[in-house]
Amino acid sequence: MSAPLNDLMLYDTRAREISKFIPIKNNQVSIYLCGPTVQSSPHIGHVRSAVNFDILRRWLNELGYKVSLVRNVTDIDDKILNKAVVEKLEWFELAYKYEREFTNAYQLLNVLPPTYEPRATGHITQMIELMEKLIENCKAYAPGNGDVYLSVRSLDSYLTLSRQNIDDLQSAADADDRFKKDVRDFALWKGAKPGEPSWPTPWGPGRPGWHLECSAMAFAYLGESFDIHGGGLDLIFPHHENEIAQSEAAGYGFAKRWMHNAWVTQSGEKMSKSLGNTMQVTELIKQVRPIELRWYLGSAHYRSMLEFSPNALQESAVAFTRLENFLNRAKEILENISDNQLSAEFSSAMNNDLAVPEAIATIYEDLRLGNVALQESNKTELQIRANAIRSALRILGVDPFTATKSDARNQETLSGLVKLAIAERKAARERKDFVTSDEIRDKLANLGITIEDTPNGVRWIQN
To answer: DSSP assignment of 195-208, as one string?
Structure first.
């Protein structure tokens, strides 16, 4: 345990303030995180949320909490149905295709698997039960066309998350307004249309609206009340607002705290499919290693926008490599480098609403002092700084000594190729062919590999 449990302060979007985090149950934390709508390949705007909340989860674990995290998969929705037509696939084929891509992206970026990962289509029964309860409570109605709507004006607490005025809202635009009592009412359930998938209900066949699934699945796995609901900033309205409406109308306490990560932007605009500026994970890991991409995505404060540029990504990768090189050099000298020796400064930063930029500043200070210890051959100080750096990187999910299989494989391949080049350089020097020796050194340097001749032999560093 790194710090007292009650030292953790977290921001609450609904309250608009940072406050002490106190879970519903002692030493246990329940989290519901909105997962992907699986209708396209994952880009870094999608996976930033997963990385941010993975850091939260790791920090809660470090503080001694047992964490239950539910991350849903929306596998039925208008976008999926439309995309299936474009790709000439069955809707469930398309959904599963992209679900696998998201799973692979999470694994590449070392995101811990959720405790539960329910699909919307696997919880139709729970959705029907919730709608029955809402109708019984006079908070929802079925006009007879197969749709079911939530009556938003029947709720005193509606819009307490986004703090909008209900009279300023336009139509929910998710169904035919002719059947609504108020155009602002939103669809819990959509009546079946020709050629679309449907499930039987007491009000006729149809499929779920976007918002219903999360309320039903949060209740199924976490109960009437849970500690944290997370997701991207763009979900505050209408999705999260409508989740609150559904759940509180059913009499549930629902989420005690709301946390939202900001966007990845490009040229000041939110990264999205509609803007055509998506950066897919599979493309970016051709430019940097997965561990370096995670470091980049996790380095900004989760509530701050992250402006993407290729230069920023490369600079971030170089910065991470410096930490990695230091730990590798320290490993040559020390018997062991602990991953459980966090500095007080790092812990303090993390307890301050996951202030990762401040936490990273403490890592760089440890790096500075660690390099001084290397120069002065101060093994005791080197041990302290190396322990602190590795421990901090573990919390951020980027411990280079426990890298993902992909990272480890890439690093092993690189290491083997560099060693072959070093052997060729050594052979050239032994036969006094210094032109070839220097040429090999220069070519490695052009590839970002620095060769150092030390009393203990040749050392190479990736810049």
So the answer is: TS--B--TT-SEEE
Structure tokens belonging to residue 320: 């991470």
Please name the amino acid found at residue 172: A
Computed on alpha carbons and rounded to an integer, the radius of gyration of the chain in Å comes to 26
Query: Is the bond into 143 cis (omega within 30 degrees of 0)?
Result: no
142: how many CB neighbours lie within 10 A of its CB? Answer: 19
The token pair at 28 is: 């246990």
How many Å apart are CA 370 and CA 171, to the nearest integer?
Answer: 60
Residues 6+ apart with CB under 8 A from 199: 124, 205, 206, 207
The predicted-structure confidence for 227-269, as pLDDT tens digits, reads as follows 999 999 999 999 999 999 999 999 999 999 999 999 999 877 7
378: left (phi over 0), alpha (psi -120 to 50) or beta: beta
Encode pLDDT of 400-446 as tens digits: 998 755 565 565 566 667 767 777 888 888 888 888 888 888 888 87
* Beta pairing partners, 10: 19
Instruction: Return the closest-CA partner of residue 257 out of 66, 34, 20, 5.
Output: 20
